[in-house]
């Protein structure tokens, strides 16, 4: 639905505070998923981990994200963004604290899975809440900032891991994990007092609460009739269900969001989780120096997001995602040369991949929030996350095996192939949503053209179950 006072509001202190509060979760996600790659070095020595154990630990959180996104996106649409917003962070704190005391491989795997569930829940919670509060013309950029926070968290994890390893050696892996518990607690405190989404409140018939939330956050008064009209515009009161994501036009959108997301993060997650190992395979940064190299690459991922944040709201979502995927494949093909690739070229290729990946990266959470109505917005975001994690978990689990059996060159070429699939999916299915309200972007496409009495062209909406094109 579309509430005019929200869509047209100027950015103020509330929007900035909400953006930072929502970004806290993705920051933690990047930190938690990357710190394990650093701590695995010391953990492996102390717990006598095999290659299979390391792969299982690396993939456990991603499997948890699959479950968390699939289940808790729908729960968020039922219970509300605000309630789930706090619960999942409390789980992150608890899982991180318990991980410090793990003495067996199975304990680490289970706790990483639990942390992953909480991370998977946070993606649709934070992104849907922010999307439903921010003005149209700033939505792409502000949602992209959440992704930026993810990479900052990943870079911070490698820097912290590097410093801790230098000071205390490999035995400090427990303190590395403990650092994530402290950060989780701080973000939890920062989120206290975050208001519920007015769109979700109206969708549930709580117009009075929606009016109060808007008045408190924006200092503006909205009539009950305006809120009901906004709901009718999007037809949210129809209350879409989970199964609607797999029918008609919504099926295409679900597949698009999940598949491009998967193709973008499968090589990226493998790179960030096993960054030191991959760089070591190229003969670069063995030992703790590999953590510093991984931190540098993570920083470049951040830098790649910055121009993309401006481009998605200026030139549009579709051209950004199509061209970015095409350019991302090139450095991975070059790295297919394996260990024979010169040192300078390896670094240049990793940096180029990181820079070009900014486009799809900032759209990972933008597209799911724009292409689906309020009643299933968080559900759709969760499903897209879950689809993406199928590839990410498989890639993370198989990467060490691929490195040992196929070699670094073949592994990089596989990554290039996955990236090209993402390009094809974007060419076929990417829609343009720049500058439009959530009501417009989530509406089903028009089927036929008619003429109004005034001679203006009108469109007849596609019925709910019909499969439409872009």
Automatic annotation (TrEMBL):
Q: Does the keyword Zinc apply?
A: no
**Protein name in the entry:** MFS transporter
The UniProt record lists the Major facilitator superfamily (MFS) profile domain at 18-434
Q: Sorted alphabetically, which Pfam families does this protein's record hold?
A: Sugar_tr
What spans are recorded as compositionally biased (Basic and acidic residues)? Answer: 454-470
What lineage does UniProt assign to this protein's organism? Bacteria, Bacillati, Actinomycetota, Actinomycetes, Kitasatosporales
- Report keywords, A-Z: Membrane, Transmembrane, Transmembrane helix
TM spans (from-to): 20-43, 55-76, 83-102, 108-130, 142-165, 171-190, 250-272, 292-312, 324-356, 406-430
């Amino acid at each position: 639905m579309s509430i005019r006072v929200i869509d047209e509001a100027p950015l103020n202190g509330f929007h900035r505070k909400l953006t930072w509060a929502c970004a806290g979760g993705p920051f933690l996600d990047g930190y938690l998923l990357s710190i394990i790659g650093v701590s695995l070095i010391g953990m492996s020595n102390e717990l006598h981990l095999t290659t299979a154990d390391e792969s299982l630990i690396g993939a456990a959180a991603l499997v948890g994200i699959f479950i968390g996104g699939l289940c808790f996106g729908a729960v968020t649409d039922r219970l509300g963004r605000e309630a789930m917003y706090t619960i999942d962070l409390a789980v992150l704190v608890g899982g991180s604290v318990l991980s410090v005391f793990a003495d067996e491989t199975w304990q680490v795997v289970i706790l990483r899975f639990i942390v992953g569930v909480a991370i998977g829940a946070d993606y649709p919670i934070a992104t849907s809440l922010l999307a439903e509060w921010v003005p149209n013309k700033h939505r792409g950029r502000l949602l992209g900032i959440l992704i930026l926070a993810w990479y900052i968290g990943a870079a911070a994890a490698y820097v912290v891991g590097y410093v801790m390893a230098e000071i205390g050696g490999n035995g400090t892996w427990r303190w590395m994990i403990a650092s994530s518990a402290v950060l989780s607690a701080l973000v939890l405190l920062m989120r206290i007092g975050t208001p519920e989404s007015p769109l979700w409140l109206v969708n549930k018939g709580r117009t009075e609460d929606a009016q109060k939330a808007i008045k408190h956050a924006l200092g503006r008064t909205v009539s009950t009739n305006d809120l009901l009209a906004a709901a009718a515009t999007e037809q949210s009161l129809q209350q879409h269900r989970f199964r609607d994501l797999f029918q008609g036009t919504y099926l295409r959108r679900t597949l698009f969001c999940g598949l491009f997301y998967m193709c973008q993060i499968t090589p990226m997650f493998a790179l960030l989780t096993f960054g030191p190992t991959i760089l070591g395979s190229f003969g670069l940064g063995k030992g703790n120096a590999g953590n510093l190299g991984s931190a540098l690459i993570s920083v470049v991922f951040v830098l790649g997001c910055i121009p993309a944040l401006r481009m998605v709201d200026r030139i549009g979502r579709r051209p950004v995602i199509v061209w970015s995927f095409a350019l991302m494949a090139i450095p991975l093909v070059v790295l297919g040369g394996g260990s024979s690739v010169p040192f300078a070229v390896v670094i240049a290729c990793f940096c180029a991949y990181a820079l070009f990946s900014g486009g799809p990266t900032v759209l990972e959470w933008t597209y799911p929030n724009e292409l689906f109505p309020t009643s299933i917005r968080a559900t759709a975001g969760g499903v897209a996350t879950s689809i993406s994690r199928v590839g990410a978990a498989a890639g993370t689990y198989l990467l060490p095996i691929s490195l040992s059996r196929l070699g670094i060159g073949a592994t990089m070429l596989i990554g290039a192939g996955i990236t090209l699939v993402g390009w094809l999916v974007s060419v076929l299915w990417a829609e343009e949503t720049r500058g439009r309200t959530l009501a417009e972007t989530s509406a089903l496409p028009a089927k036929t053209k008619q003429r109004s009495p005034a001679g203006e062209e009108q469109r007849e909406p596609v019925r709910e179950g019909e499969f439409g094109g872009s």
